[in-house]
Amino acid sequence: MLKIDFDKFLIGLVLFLVITWDFLGTTMLARELPTIPSIVVLLGTWLLALRFIFLRDYDLNFLVFAPILFLVGLAVAVKMRNINFLIYMSLIVLLYKADIDYVLKIFALISGVMLAVTVFLSYLDVIPNLQFVQNRVRGVVTRNSLGFIYPTDFASHCFYFFAALSYVWREKYIWFRTALGIFLTAVIYFVADARLNAYSTALTVAVFLLFYFKKNFNENIFKPLPLIGPAAVGLMYYWTTHFNWGDSKYIALNNFFSMRLALGRQAMNTYAINRFGTPEAQFRGYGGTTETVLNYTYVDSSYIQMLFYFGSVSVIVLALYYFIQSIHVLRKRQYLLLCLLSLIAVNCMIEAFWIRPSYNIFMFILMGVGGEMLKGGENEAHQELSV
User: Fold this and answer.
1) What is the tens place of the pLDDT at every residue in 102-156?
2) How far from the centroid of its chain's Cα atoms is residue 39's Cα?
C-alpha cells in the first residue's frame, strides 16, 4: 500500500508541475504570471526516477526504448539548445508501469480546472479574449480564444480533456458524458470555429457511445489500427514533399488539410531537415495577439513541425515507439484506447500537439501498457467490451 501511495503521490506531483507549465504557456495568463523555468520542470520530471526503487522487472520494450528516447531527447536538447523535448521524452520513459487510469484522472482534473479558470478569467476581462475575424464558406465568422493565445489552443484542450475524462469514466455517466461532449462540440464549432477539433470531439462521443452499448466486436477490425500512427506520419511527409501548385490533386488535398501541405512544403524549401532539429527554423503565425501576420509561415501539422523542431530521428523513433506500444494495446484487447490513439494520430496530421503533455496525454501513458501496475490489465479489456 505504501509503495502504491508513494507512486501515485509522485506521479500526481510531477504531472501537476509539467501539465501546469505546458498549459500556462498556451494561455494569456503566461503574460501575467512568472514563467516556470524549463530546468525546474526537467529536474521535477526526473523525480519520477524514485519510482524505480520499487520496480524490479523490466520488459524488453522498456529496455530498448527507454535509453533510445532519452538519448534522442538529450541530442535534441544539445542541438536546439532547448530542453523541452528532453522533458517530454523523460516523462514518457519515467511513467513506465504507471497506472493509466490514474494518470488520465490527474490530467483531466488539472486540464479541466485550468480550462474553467482561464475561460472564467477571460469572461471577467482579467485576461483578454482574443477575437479573430476570418472568411468561411458560410460567411464571415469571429473566432474567440476565450483566454487562450489562439482559438485552436482552447479547442484542442477541450478535445483532449474530454477524451481523457471519458476514458476514465468509460463505465459510467454515459448520458452526462454524451451531453458534455455535444456541448463542447458546439462551443468549439460555433464559438472558437475550430472545425477539426469539433469533428474530433463529436467522433469521440460516438466512439464512447459505441463501446458503451455494443458488447461484442469482430476483433479483426482493430488489427490494422497500430499502423494508423506511422501511416499518418508517412503520408503527411509524402504529400508535403510532393506538393506542387501545378497538380490539381495536390491542390484539392491541400485545401482539405487547410493549407498544411503548402506551408509544410514552403518550410522544406526554406530550411533543411536535420537529424536532431533545425535551430534556425522559425515559423510565424497567429497567437497571443490579433495583429495581422503579413508573412504567415506557421507549420501546424505535428509530424512536419517536429521534423524541424526535433529532427527526423525523433519523428522516426516516436512513430516506431507508437507502433510497438499500440501492438501491445491491441494484444491486451484494449480496443477503446486503441481507437482513441488512432483518432488522435489522424487529428495530429493537421494540428501540432502530438507530443505536448498538456494536450495529448495519451502519448505519455504508452509506457504504462503491459506494466504490472497498470490498472485492470486484461480485466480492462473485458470491461471495455462488456460494460
Assistant:
1) 999 999 999 999 999 999 999 999 999 999 888 776 778 899 999 999 999 999 9
2) 22
pLDDT digits (tens, 9 = 90+) for 357-373: 999 999 999 988 754 33
Q: Which residues pair with 132 in a beta bridge?
A: 143
Burial per residue of 109-128, b for 16 or more beta-carbon CB atoms within 10 angstroms, e otherwise: bbbbebbeebbebbeeeebb
What is the dihedral angle through the alpha carbons of 163, 166, 168, 170, rounded to the nearest 10 degrees? -130
- What is the Cβ-side half-sphere exposure of residue 244, based on CA atoms within 13 angstroms? 3
State the cell numbers at 293.
501576420
Residue 365: what are its φ and ψ, rounded to 5°? Answer: -100, 0
Round to whole Å and give the CA distance between 122 and 162.
21
DSSP bridge partners of 141: 134
C-alpha cell at 191: 464559438
Q: Grid coordinates standing for 241?
A: 514533399
Measured CA to CA, the distance from residue 114 to residue 55 in angstroms comes to: 33
Tell me the C-alpha distance between 12 and 351, whole Å. Answer: 27
Q: Hey, how many other C-beta atoms are within 10 angstroms of the C-beta on 43?
A: 13
Centroid of chain to Cα 121: 25
Residue corresponding to grid cell 519515467: 94
What is d(CA 96, CA 48) in angstroms, rounded to the nearest whole number?
10
- Give the Å distances, CA to CA, from 277 to 83, 212, 235, 253, 267: 12, 43, 20, 27, 13
